[in-house]
Amino acid sequence: MFHLAWFTNPRAHGWTANGADRWAGNDIYPERWQTLSFLKDMVRQLEGAGFDFIMIEDHVVLTNDKQNLEPRIDPMIVMPVLAEATRRLGIIGTFSSSFYPPFLLARQINSLDLVSGGRCGWNVVTSSEDWAAQAFGRDKQPPHDERYAIADEMLDLVKQLWDAWEPDPFEMSAETGRYVDPTKFREFTFEGKYHRSIGPLNVTRSPQDRPVICQAGSSPAGRDFAAKHSEVILCSTFGRDSVPALKEFRDDIRTRMVSHGRDPDDAKVMFLISPVIGDTQEAAQARYEEIVGMTPTILAQRLGRLTLHTGIDWTQFDLDAPFPDIDPADIQGFQGFVASIKAKAKGGKSLREALCEQETTSLKLIGTPEQVADKMEAAMAEIGGDGFLMHARPLTRRYLAEVLDGLVPILQRRGLVRRDYGASTLRGHLAEF
């Protein structure tokens, strides 16, 4: 069996950048996405389909690409709304280790975990954009590997804050007059290179022991960080549409976990996919070509994504000249993103040609529901585990129905994914198989 989860963000959905460049669907109006009515309907459907969790993506500031502006809602506001709409589905929010004080973030996430009954998690990002740093009163972000060092120390502190309370500390004694037993928590002082704090929190222990940690990193520093700290590790491979590449990633993560003294089964590697489903193979392929066709709009979006994730203005390069001579190790943003696109440009291909081949999912899944299920089953058998993280292009009610009413029941009938929950917490869902 393997796990299923969904990746999205609280913003307008339904955009399709085909030749007509239109807003599509009926789910994209501000009164619908800003009140979260679409997402509330969506999480109820995900829970009905037995998904492990929904992961809420975020950027803390607008991109500097004026052509591709995407306002968002803070996940800290979104998560309790979605928790109230569900009873079993896990809810993971994205928060930057670069800008939150550790004590504040540890307290907020633990509070979310308490009110949701142990269903919350934190997707740890380090934020690479200098304009994000400027929004928080700083000149620029630290170098790539130092950001991971800062995040590593922050995670050490946050875990100590979460672990400082023992389970069930409530005394509620009329004799002593105490509500909480003062022997059931640990006071401490933390002095690190980047952070200082005291503990404990004034929030008691998580119902699932700790909120779940999630992380996506393809660079060596990112992989090592995830292997040390995470229970959920996201893998895109940025266009390396290759099952062996996904197996290599998972095997590497598991080896790194052992080096950190962890059981490799304690983390689930989730591979990002965007299935394109049709009544026939030909219909699905036609939809795929419409979604990824290299129109001027899509080209601008891909250049904007590169700029956002790398801190380099990619519009300065000639699209039809050979791919720019850029060493991914010199990138202070997403190094794996650049490395994968550069790999597509081998043989003297131009930047335009590399972008045409660029995918942001792990596997190219195009076909009927049965065909897509076949490919998912075969890929997971070769990889060895652990699950898939779905991302829609575009996200509409039609797409949800195609996946949740068309694809998932096939996977359930084959015994590949759960029909019902066997646990009540997110950590419990991940530990089921």
How do the strands and helices of this protein lay out in sequence?
Blueprint: E1 3-8, E2 15-16, E3 22-23, H1 30-33, H2 37-48, E4 53-56, H3 75-84, E5 90-96, H4 102-115, E6 120-125, H5 130-135, H6 144-163, E7 188-191, E8 196-199, E9 212-216, H7 220-229, E10 232-235, H8 243-259, E11 268-273, E12 276-277, H9 281-292, H10 296-310, H11 335-344, H12 351-357, E13 366-367, H13 369-383, E14 387-390, H14 397-413, H15 426-431
Parallel strand pairs: 1-4, 1-14, 4-5, 5-6, 6-9, 9-10, 10-11, 11-14, 12-13
Antiparallel strand pairs: 2-3, 7-8
Helix pairs in contact: 3-4, 4-6, 6-7, 7-8, 11-12, 13-14
Provide a descriptive summary of the structure in words:
The chain has 15 helices and 14 strands. A hairpin with a 5-residue loop joins strand 2 and strand 3 (22-23). Helix 4 (102-115) crosses helix 6 (144-163) and helix 11 (335-344) packs across helix 12 (351-357). It has an 8-stranded parallel β-barrel, surrounded by 5 helices. It starts with a strand and ends with a helix. It has 433 residues and is an alpha/beta fold. The chain is globular and about 80 Å long. The relative contact order is 0.15. It has helices spanning 30-33, 37-48, 75-84, 102-115, 130-135, 144-163, 220-229, 243-259, 281-292, 296-310, 335-344, 351-357, 369-383, 397-413, 426-431, and strands at 3-8, 15-16, 22-23, 53-56, 90-96, 120-125, 188-191, 196-199, 212-216, 232-235, 268-273, 276-277, 366-367, 387-390. The protein is 40% helix and 13% strand. The longest helix is centred in the middle third of the chain and has 20 residues, at 144-163. The model is unreliable at 15-26 (pLDDT under 50).
